[in-house]
Amino acid sequence: MKNRFLGEYRFFMGMPRLMRLVLITNMIYAFVLPVIDIFVGAYIMRSADSPAMVGVYQLCVYTGIPITFLINGFLLNRFNVSHLYSFGMLLSGISMLFMMSLSVMSFEGVAFAGFIMGISFGFFWANRDYLALDTTNDKNRNYYFGVETFFYTITFILVPAVVGWYLRSSNIHGWFDGSMAVAYRMIAYAVIILTIMSSIVIHLGKFRNPKQKKFIYWKYDVLWKKFLVLSALKGSVQGYLVTAPAILIMRLVGDEGSLGLIQSISGIITAFLLYVLGRTAKPQHRLLIFGSGILIFFLGALANQILFSALGVIIFVLCKVLFMPLHDIAYFPIQMRIIDVLSFKENRSEFAYIFNHEFGLYVGRFIGLGLFIYLAFYVSEIVALRYSVLIIAAIQLLSIPLAKNIIKHTNRTIDKVKSDNPDLDAPKLVI
């Protein structure tokens, strides 16, 4: 066992140094993401008891992200990518602290806090995506995202359990004079400390900014247009994955302690599966991994719709926790492979595609969350929680044949680029 662990450590140390620094930074920040994804929604439900308010918060988060991608593109001409990356991480803790300091939970205050959180995510994801693209190649991207999602899944096991226990104990034993608001603020302070630590790590390396300054284009290759449709499908489900599970558990299962326990149990098998996939899976296995994740999510949504009970929610959350990393471990390498070839073919900055991709995600997020908010406001909360999740999951099934077509189109494009450029010197296009 010890030799096995040392072998994996040596394999990790054999990766490029800048790639390792990005991974370590994301590993630290991984302790922050479960708090934001899970317990911010639970905090709004506890304080305002309004699923619609949770939906508004997430919609404002998702609105702030693409706007910040645009701002980030211009700032990259003046500031180093690592500075902008660390600023986004620090801002997420500040935004969380602001919302948990609101004396009255209003739609306006929640919307503003959500928009600021969206800005922080915008700086984080825009620069994280570029750094991941720039410090990896197609050979090691399965490993990169396998390790990253493995660690994210481990933190989704540990953090919800610890935070859930802490919040439940605070409520039972009357810590902080029985104030749950103070208990939540202490979590926000811990988040800020973690973001400072991750910011220090990313500054240990010298990362390069995109070479070309222009990043706004209106016309793109047909391959990229296909991928934007795939990104919209991905975006449509993201709003539900950070909104519906928390509301379902608070309504049908119990409190934050139950929320943390369910997330922890469902992540144990997933974590080790992801590491094995990242370590052993080849680029040609991505479609199988991608399709498997979507089918699992559909089955979970179907169980929730049929049962609509504590058992149904547990099955749904188990499937959802397995779906998310399986989807991402295949989706992001597919995206980066496309950017590799199209940035060379069209002679454009890689960030141009990262920036444009975010708007594809936003369209999907807006449609998905818009559907949820409309049903919660104008139909009923039960319909929003029971049926719209299944609708979104069924739509996701369209991603499987689309992804298959995109992978084939990408390979054909690479072959054409190589045939048109026999003296090609582009290592990232070579497997």
Describe the structure.
The model has no long low-confidence stretch (mean pLDDT 82). The protein has one domain: Growth Hormone, Chain: A (Up-down Bundle). It has 431 residues and is mostly helical. α5 runs antiparallel to α8 and α9 packs antiparallel against α13.
Q: How would you sum up the global shape? A: globular
- What top-tier CATH class fits best? Mainly Alpha
Using only C-alpha atoms, the radius of gyration works out to: 21 Å
Range of strand content = under 5%
DSSP strand tally:
0
Uncertain parts: none
Instruction: Give the name of the CATH architecture.
Output: Up-down Bundle
Helix content: over 70%
Average pLDDT score = 82
CATH superfamily assignment?
MFS general substrate transporter like domains
Major sheet description = none
What's the total helix number?
17
What string gives the helices and strands in order? HHHHHHHHHHHHHHHHH
- Domains, number: 1
The CATH topology annotation reads as: Growth Hormone, Chain: A
Termini gap: 32 Å
Task: Specify the structural class.
Answer: mainly alpha
